[in-house]
Design a protein that fits this description.
globular, binds adenosine-5'-triphosphate, alpha/beta, 10 strands, Isopropylmalate Dehydrogenase
Length: 359
C-alpha cells in the first residue's frame, strides 16, 4: 500500500521529428500510472526546443526552456535536430547535448534489456538474456571541442579530447554505485593502449575501483568491446566509458535488443536530470505514425525511479512491467521490430497493461 502523497513538476520538451509523437505516448503511460497510484501527481509544463524552434525564433534552446528544466523536478525530452537544419559550418543543432552541459548532467545512463528474443538479431537469447547498462560520461571526452567552429578553408582541423579527474571520478562512481544494485560487475571501456587521455581515464577508474572491493571489474579496449557486445553481450553488467565511445556503443548495444526504439536513457547530474529515448528525431519516419514509443515510455519509467519517492517507484515499476508484458507477445511490434503496430496503438497497449496489472 502506498501511503505518501507526492507531487512532481515535469518539464516536457517534445522537440523535432518523431519526438512529439513518442512523448505523447509516454505521457499517456505516465497518466495511467498516476491513475493506479493516486497519491502520485505529475504537473507537466511544455517547452519549445530543437531545430523547429530555431526556424521560429533563431534559438534552438531558448533561455526560458533551460529555466523551465532547471525549476522542474525532472525533464522528459523527445528528440531534437533535423539533418537539413545546420549551423553554417556544417554541424547539426544539438540542444539535447547542450542541455547536458548546461545542467551538468554528467552521467548518461543507457539500459539495454532484451524484452523478447524475436527483437534481437542475435540467436540464443531469451527475454532478459541481454541485460546491461552503459554509463557514458556526458560532459567532456571527445565531445570537448564540439562547440569550436572549423575553418572550412584551412588545411586541417583538430579536436581536443578533455578528460578531467573530477569528470572521470564521478562517472566511475556512478557506475560502481549502479553495479552494487545489479550483478556487481563493471567493465571499463577505453583505448588506454593508444591515447594518453584514456590511460589517464583508466588510472582514475582503478583508483575508484579500489574503493569498491565488492564489485568485480574488467578493462576492455573499445574496439574489442564492440566485438564482445556482438559475440557475447551477456558477459557485461555495467559498462563505463568516455562520451564518444558511449555514443557509439550505446547505438550498437541498442541494435542487439531491437534498435533505437527500445533504448531509453537518463542524463543525470547531482541536481537535475533529463530523460529521453537514446534515438534521434528519425526524420525518415517522422509524421508517419509508426515510430516505436517504447524507448520514451521506458525513459519515463526511469524518470519516476529517479524522482525516488515510494509512490513514484511503484509507478516506475508498473510501467516497466507493463512494457515487459506487452512485449511478451511478439505480435505487439512496431515496424522497426518487424510488426505493424502503430505508435499510438503501442502506447495504448502499454497503457492498458498498466491499468490492468496487479499492484
Ligand atoms: P542522433 O544523431 O540524434 O542520435 P541519428 O541521426 O543517429 O540521430 P536516429 O534519429 O536515432 O538517428 O535514427 C536512426 C535510425 O533508427 C533511423 O533509421 C530511424 O528511423 C530509426 N529509429 C530511431 N528511433 C526510432 C523509433 N523510435 N522507432 C522506430 N525507428 C526508430
Amino acid at each position: 500500500m502506498v501511503s505518501s502523497m507526492s507531487s512532481y513538476s515535469i518539464a516536457l520538451l517534445p522537440g523535432d521529428g518523431i519526438g512529439p509523437d513518442v512523448v505523447a505516448e509516454a505521457v499517456r503511460c505516465l497518466n495511467a500510472a498516476q491513475q493506479r497510484v493516486p497519491s502520485l501527481t505529475l504537473h507537466y509544463t511544455e517547452h519549445p526546443a530543437g531545430a523547429g524552434e530555431f526556424l521560429k525564433s533563431g534559438n534552438p534552446l531558448p533561455e526560458a526552456t533551460i529555466e523551465g528544466c532547471r525549476v522542474a523536478d525532472a525533464t522528459l525530452l523527445g528528440a531534437m535536430g533535423l539533418p537539413g537544419i545546420r549551423w553554417p559550418w556544417g554541424t547539426e543543432m544539438t540542444p539535447q547535448i547542450d542541455i547536458r552541459e548546461i545542467l551538468d548532467l554528467y552521467s548518461g545512463e543507457r539500459p539495454i534489456y532484451l524484452y523478447n528474443s524475436s527483437h534481437s538479431p542475435l540467436r540464443g537469447f531469451d527475454a532478459g538474456g541481454i541485460d546491461l547498462i552503459i554509463y557514458r560520461e556526458n560532459t567532456e571526452g571527445m565531445f570537448a571541442s564540439r562547440r569550436n567552429q572549423p575553418d572550412l578553408q584551412a588545411d586541417e582541423a583538430v579536436d581536443t579530447i578533455r578528460v578531467t579527474r573530477r569528470g572521470t571520478e564521478r562517472i566511475c562512481r556512478a557506475a560502481f554505485e549502479s553495479a552494487r544494485k545489479r550483478r556487481k560487475h563493471v567493465t571499463l571501456v577505453d583505448k588506454a593502449n593508444v591515447l594518453p587521455t584514456m590511460a589517464f581515464f583508466r588510472s582514475v577508474f582503478d583508483e575508484v575501483a579500489a574503493q569498491y572491493p565488492d564489485v568485480a571489474t574488467d578493462r576492455v579496449y573499445v574496439d574489442a568491446a564492440a566485438l564482445f557486445l556482438v559475440k557475447n553481450p551477456a558477459r557485461f553488467d555495467v559498462m563505463v566509458m568516455e562520451n564518444m565511445f558511449g555514443d557509439i556503443l550505446s547505438d550498437l548495444a541498442a541494435g542487439l535488443v531491437g534498435g533505437m526504439g527500445m533504448a531509453p536513457s537518463g542524463d543525470i547530474g547531482d541536481e537535475h536530470a533529463v530523460f529521453q529515448p537514446s534515438h534521434g528525431s528519425a526524420p525518415d519516419i517522422a509524421g508517419k505514425g509508426i515510430a516505436n514509443p517504447i524507448a520514451t515510455i521506458l525513459s519515463a519509467s526511469m524518470m519516476l525511479e529517479w524522482l525516488g519517492g515510494e509512490d513514484a517507484r511503484v509507478a516506475a515499476n508498473l510501467i516497466f512491467h507493463a512494457v515487459k508484458e506487452v512485449c511478451c507477445d511478439p505480435a505487439n511490434a512496431t515496424a522497426d521490430l518487424g510488426g505493424a503496430v502503430r505508435t499510438a496503438e503501442m502506447g495504448a497497449l502499454v497503457e492498458r497493461a498498466i491499468l490492468e496489472s496487479p499492484l
